[in-house]
């Protein structure tokens, strides 16, 4: 989700700290989803709990920041619907993958999303991509292939690993499409509305999967699933707040701290440990992602200078 409009205060250290905290909470949320999947909770049901219980957190936050009334106005219902379908589908597929693959592997393959955003910007928005970003995308996708290939090629694991890998790759593509849509939505929609109505979309769309295998998870598991929404909502607030103190290009590389959390949590809770191939592929993806983020930051600064110069001329 994108960040709410807010007064900017330059404090990069605080922005980075908030971003790292948000990433840690998101990985913790996914660990709960993984545990729920092991208990037989289907991904659609997990998405429902995640979306429903994030709504109170989001509403309280909007009320506290004064965006509760004006921030929920919608100008493009089709745009929000499309973003909701793509984003909710991406979440459901990622939750499916969490039940089939190690936590660290889902994180590593999921790093394809920012790379695919660049690809989709070229295909659907006509954006020009120069040599640096093109090479970074190719290197990053090669890293994703290194991580995913044993599962896709059937050399090491089971049919479950194949399905899980396909699910997380599809999730990355759909998430990239959702982010591409957000780029368009923010031109005429308040970010508060984008945050809130995505959660509502998640509740409604995931509820449609109820006839397809939902279970009563028991009070303990139901409580944990509710926690995913609360944790996800708090993580969203931290993520949004990070953009108050530092620009996107500064905090974006810290998305990749999620791999450290995924490895640590996976080893402690799920007895998962990455091999050298996975670490090498992940390192390639992370390096490419950081290069893309740095380049995006420079391009953003160039665009702002060009707009400022144009306004002065006018």
Automatic annotation (TrEMBL):
Keywords in alphabetical order: Membrane, Transmembrane, Transmembrane helix
Pfam families the UniProt entry points to: EamA
GO cellular component: membrane
Domain of life, per lineage: Bacteria
Family named by the database record: Belongs to the drug/metabolite transporter (DMT) superfamily. 10 TMS drug/metabolite exporter (DME) (TC 2.A.7.3) family.
The UniProt record lists the keyword Transmembrane helix: yes
N-terminal signal peptide: none
Transmembrane segments: 21-41, 47-69, 81-102, 108-126, 135-152, 158-178, 190-212, 218-239, 251-270, 276-294
UniProt lineage: Bacteria, Pseudomonadati, Pseudomonadota, Alphaproteobacteria, Rhodobacterales
Alphabetical list of InterPro entries matching this protein: EamA_dom, EmrE-like
Domain EamA: 20-148, 164-292
Cell location: Membrane
Protein's recorded name: Drug/metabolite transporter (DMT)-like permease
Topology versus the membrane: Multi-pass membrane protein
